[in-house]
Amino acid sequence: MTSKLLEVGGLMNQKFGEITKQNTTNKTTHAMIDISNSFFERENNPKREKMFRAAFKIFIAEIEHDIYYKDRFGWFIEEAIKAILNDNWEERTNGQPSSPHWNEDPPYGGKYSIVSKLKRHRAEILKIISS
Question: What is the SS3 string spanning the chain?
């Protein structure tokens, strides 16, 4: 699976070049570029980097050029938020991912995660959403 993903990522890179905010227009694409950049500032596992980069590249390219995939990803995000608010999504474990392959300023994960914070404010959020 990983080798196929790398192969597709390589082919996309040959065909489309680097995906940047300068050569894309979609707001979601730009957010995903920022998320990808943030991920690679933290991730430090050379054995997995090519696979992650290929996956992000494929994902971002599809969101940029095809509303079919963009809207399905949007649906997925909405469903993930619902799962979080229904307490069916676990936050990251406290301090996870851990070193040596992750670089994030502590504290993170657990009660510090955005998922945990959304759950703590569930009632307020649901009230806003339902109005």
Answer: CHHHHHHHHHHHHHHHCCCCCCCCCCHHHHHHHHHHHHHHHHECCHHHHHHHHHHHHHHHHHHHHCHHHHHHHHHHHHHHHHHHHCCCCCCCCCCCCCCCCECCCCCCCHHHCHHHHHHHCHHHHHHHHHC
Q: pLDDT of 78-97, one tens digit each?
A: 999 999 999 999 999 999 99
Mean pLDDT of the chain: 92
In the structure encoding, which two tokens stand for residue 85, read together?
């608010």
Task: Identify which of 50, 21, 15 has the alpha carbon closest to the alpha carbon of residue 35.
Answer: 21
